Amino acid sequence: MALSKSRTTTKTKSRAEPEASAPPKRPPFSEAVWRAVRSIPRGQVRSYSQVALYAGRPGAARGVGREMTKLPPGQELPWWRVTKSGGTLASTVAHEQAKRLRAEGVTVEQRGQVFRVKVAQESGKQQASRKTGAPTSKRKR
Predict the structure, then answer these.
(1) Which helix (H) or strand (E) holds 103?
(2) How confident is the model over 106-130, as pLDDT tens digits?
(3) How far apart are CA 129 and CA 34, in angstroms?
(4) How confident is the model at residue 99 (pLDDT cuts 50, 70, 90)?
């Protein structure tokens, strides 16, 4: 029995190439999350739940985490400023995240393989205003 030679076929592209000038459309939630992450000041961190609140979707912390894993390469987004609610860094990128946070002056504690930072807590009034969109200005006397 003779062995047949394997053929390699080249697939032709049936889809039209997207225009290079048009940026890809992202869902509104993704845009809101990215905007919230970009607004985190250097040297500070926010939890996934805080980013969800800033993005207008309280309770969507898991969605924020999912968005953080889907960042396109070359995107200028300070992902390292987002932590778990207790200040624990994501285990898969903890070393890189800790290095970047320390470079910004954030104190990162390490116990074994667990890295932790102190997450700023918002007062109840600030959280309520974020949910309703009301300004948080103090009254002058």
Answers:
(1) helix 94-103
(2) 999 988 888 999 766 654 444 444 4
(3) 21
(4) very high
Estimate the share of the chain in helix, then strand, then coil, as percent rounded to the nearest 5.
35, 10, 55
Higher pLDDT, 4 or 71: 71
Question: What is the C-alpha separation between 124 and 52, in angstroms, rounded?
Answer: 16
Q: Phi/psi of residue 115, each to 5°?
A: -110, 140
Per-residue DSSP letters for 15-68?
Answer: SPPPPTTSPPP--HHHHHHHHHHHTSPTT--EEHHHHHHHTT-TT-HHHHHHHH
Answer yes or no: are the C-beta atoms of 105 and 69 closer than 8 Å: no
Q: Please enumerate, as own/partner, the contacts of 50-59 that have beta carbons within 8 Å and a separation of 24 or more.
A: 50/119, 50/122, 51/82, 53/127, 53/130, 53/131, 54/130, 55/29, 56/32, 57/29, 57/32, 58/130, 58/131
Query: Would you call 97 helix, strand, or coil by DSSP?
Result: helix
Q: If residue 116 lies in a helix (H) or strand (E), which one and from where to where?
A: strand 114-116
Instruction: Compute the distance between CA of residue 134 and CA of residue 24 in angstroms, rounded to an integer.
Output: 32
Asked if pLDDT for residue 136 goes beyond 50, the answer is no
